[in-house]
Amino acid sequence: MAQLDVDLVAADRKIWSGAATMVVAPAADGEMGILPGHSPVLAVLRAGEVRITPVSGEPLRGTIDSGFLSVDADRVTIVAASVALISGTPTR
């Protein structure tokens, strides 16, 4: 099964890292969905909700205020000034 390697990072710490099947983030031009095999992209993010569907475990939802998203070779990195989790378990 194809999967994404995802890192969700706030300015001061890593919030979550792991394998996922889908990521949805609030890009400046509208909501952006990322699945395995997505073309490389760099996008500016606006305030809104990020949703990550892990390969196993409960979905992760959090709000961000701004940041950017990078996708390259099934690796997704979301960097935000701040992240507040709504649901899911942060990386310890």
What's the helix-strand series? EEEEEEEEE
Q: How would a crystallographer describe the biggest sheet?
A: 9 strands, mixed
In terms of DSSP E residues, the strand content is: over 45%
Structural class: mainly beta
Radius of gyration: 12 Å
Short characterization:
0% of the residues lie in helices and 65% in strands. It has 92 residues and is mainly β. The protein has a single domain (4-87), classed as F0F1 ATP synthase delta/epsilon subunit, N-terminal (ATP Synthase, domain 1, Sandwich).
Question: Overview of this structure, please?
Answer:
The chain has one domain: F0F1 ATP synthase delta/epsilon subunit, N-terminal (ATP Synthase, domain 1, Sandwich). 0% of the residues lie in helices and 65% in strands. The chain is built from no helices and nine strands. Strands 1, 2, 3, 4, 5, 6, 7, 8 and 9 form a nine-stranded mixed sheet that branches. The model has no long low-confidence stretch (mean pLDDT 93). Pfam families: ATP-synt_DE_N. This is ATP synthase epsilon chain. Belongs to the ATPase epsilon chain family. GO terms for molecular function: ATP binding; proton-transporting ATP synthase activity, rotational mechanism.
